[in-house]
Design goal:
The structure is a single chain. Helices cover 43% and strands 23% of the residues. By secondary structure, the protein is of the alpha/beta class. Strands 3, 4, 5, 6, 7, 10, 11 and 12 form an eight-stranded mixed beta sheet that branches. Strand 8, helix 7 and strand 9 form a beta-alpha-beta unit. The longest helix is centred in the N-terminal third of the chain and has 32 residues. The protein starts with a helix and ends with a helix. The relative contact order is 0.14.
Length: 288
């Protein structure tokens, strides 16, 4: 069996071109790299390098070996990651979502042995995140179709726009995205799929994105910019405490303004997740 460190030295040489540079990259001495190259040739039973008094280069077999070594190292690293992820998934339940609302409800449960991702997911390749045990459960706005994965309905989230009390639209029971055309909105940056929805659906709108919630609240309180909440927002006590009295909540009636969310997990993890999901669904119903 070829040891990993020999493959790493070969790849480092191929990428850097000289023994000296390869040694610097790996924090090794040049003689150590030289010994490694000779050992690798001995172990493989082939010549990988063309050697002259002043220079050493990879021959064609060496170039091919370096390409294969890079693939082997990547496979080995993936193996390590998958085993560690599997081990972690059996110790705790890790959950991530494509939108903040479902996580707001979950955090209020104060459930033990839960790890909730701080960064929202993109609505793509969620299937792999589960199959590779990177998360025990991921929340999406559509079921994941895979024979190893089960998808369970969690609840619905409805988009609401908070309009200045003197706005003509504030007197309406509901508005459409089209009716919000051309307005400037104050928006928190990390709102997951809602960001793409408002950008795609509201014509000619301007969005003043804020990364920091404290800055968002300060601008909101000292301006008349409309902003968005959902039916889940009130579950966030800190957010509710910072609501302003000069804005009127108006529901958005378009189809895309209502999103259905699902908890997706490997079927083998169903027993571990069932109690969490049942509590999650009950809490969502009470908020909604």
């Amino acid at each position: 069996m070829i040891e990993n460190y020999l493959l790493e030295e070969l790849v480092a040489f191929a990428e850097n071109g000289t023994l000296n540079k390869a040694a610097e990259k790996l924090n090794l001495s040049q003689p150590a790299i030289t010994r490694g190259t000779k050992k690798l040739e001995t172990d493989l039973g082939v010549t990988l390098f063309d050697r002259t008094p002043n220079r050493i280069t990879l021959n064609e077999t060496g170039k091919y070996a370096a390409e294969q070594a890079k693939k082997v190292l990547a496979t080995n690293q993936n193996f390590i990651s998958q085993v560690r992820n599997f081990d972690n998934s059996n110790k705790e339940i890790s959950i991530a979502s494509i939108a903040p609302g479902p996580l707001i409800v979950l955090k209020n449960l104060k459930q033990k042995n839960l790890t909730i991702a701080n960064t929202l997911l993109k609505n793509q390749d969620l299937e792999s995140l589960l199959l590779e045990n990177q998360f025990t459960c991921v929340v999406s706005n559509q079921p994941i179709k895979n024979s190893k994965i089960e998808s369970v309905y969690l609840g619905m989230e409805h988009l609401i726009v908070q309009l200045n009390e003197f706005s003509d639209l504030a007197s309406k029971k509901s508005v459409t995205f089209k009716e919000l055309e051309g307005l400037s909105f104050l928006v928190l940056s990390d709102i997951g799929i809602w960001k793409e929805i408002i950008q795609d659906e509201i014509p000619n709108a301007k969005f003043l994105y804020q990364n920091d919630e404290a800055n968002f609240n300060e601008i909101k309180n000292y301006s008349v910019f409309p902003f968005f909440i959902t039916n889940i927002t009130k579950a966030n006590r800190q957010w509710s405490n910072n609501m302003t009295s000069d804005r009127i909540p108006v529901e958005i009636s378009d189809k895309d303004a209502t999103q259905v969310f699902y908890a997706n997990f490997l079927k083998e993890n169903k027993k571990r997740l069932e109690p969490v999901i049942e509590n999650w669904q009950d809490a969502w119903e009470k908020v909604d």
